[in-house]
User: Fold this.
Amino acid sequence: MSRNIGLALVLLLFSNLSSAATATKRKHRHTAVQPAVVHTALVTTGQAARSPVPIRRAAVQVSRQAAAPIIAGGPWTEPTYADSTLGDNVDGEDLEIRRAAVESLGDYNGSVVVVDPANGRVLTMVNQRIALGSGFQPCSTIKVSVALAGLSEKAIDPATKLRLGAMRMDLTYALAHSNNFYFATLGEKLGYERVSYYAHLFGYGEKAGLNIPGEQPGRYPSAPPRNGGVGMLTSFGEEIQQTPLQLAALMSAVANGGTLYYLQYPRNQPEVQQFIPRVKRRLEIGELIPVIKPGMRGAVEFGTAHRAREDGPIAGKTGTCSENHTHLGWFGSFNDVGDHKLVVVVLLTGGRPAIGPVAAGIAGDIYRRLGEKNYFATSRPMSPATLISSQICCQ
Assistant:
């Protein structure tokens, strides 16, 4: 019964947020969603779905035991525009990438982290105060981790479709359009313990970097969130604190085929010359990456991240929500072809302009600027890092 109640909570929250327009996650209205009668279906793996609990009856039960999930919002207390380079140390960075990131971010208040997924080197970290801080709610970027968890547990497969009213959608559509209903239902099916296991496996709740001064480990809740349960956890990242470095590390593992590197951030040129990659662990996701990649490519080509679309293919995931009266716009991505793959993570903070689609546009501009300089077509110079990483990650 508790599982049905949790699912009812999630369905009540997301029944009106199912269209592609909900990719912007309109969490700026500080109101509770009222109970409503909706049609529901469970994600299945070939077995017959159990009969759904009537939502109106479940809503009555829920009202006696728990409050409906709250959609948090403004007024906004963080400025949308600021100088995001103040205090940064750039001595060990790739200055060409740094320049592209700073120019693309412009006046927005946020952070940009660019990583080489072949070895875990942080090439630039714009706004190191934010990037190394305690983290922010991941919003819909958490859906990448949840999708990998669902596929690992065989709770879904590429052909699995979930009915949402008159619509049916598969994983590719759900990722591309960041559908909350799909991932809330998947989270309820998996349960908190399995969702948490995979999240920690993918790097949540621990430092992504190796000996990076000032880095914080973020936070992962030790129990399902009180606000909306596991459904809010797996669709909005409720109660999770994700750092830009953590998202960059996970995106790097997806980009390189499953190697989760310790991120390393050289602070001067001697450290750059002596850089050697360090593997944190290998993720058994090699066979799953081709399954989630169409949805991540679709997000850029026709979904929530279409502002990142450039001549070369890009795969990514947006996230938009608000936390502590700060609007958040995330985009984690990697270019999907070329001799130089890069992971680009953008986090915007501020008021309503700080949204995932704008973050995607900034990332797309970074790829464009580097492409104009033929960055992706040139070979990397031979070094200990390139020699080791080519043997490790890209078979």
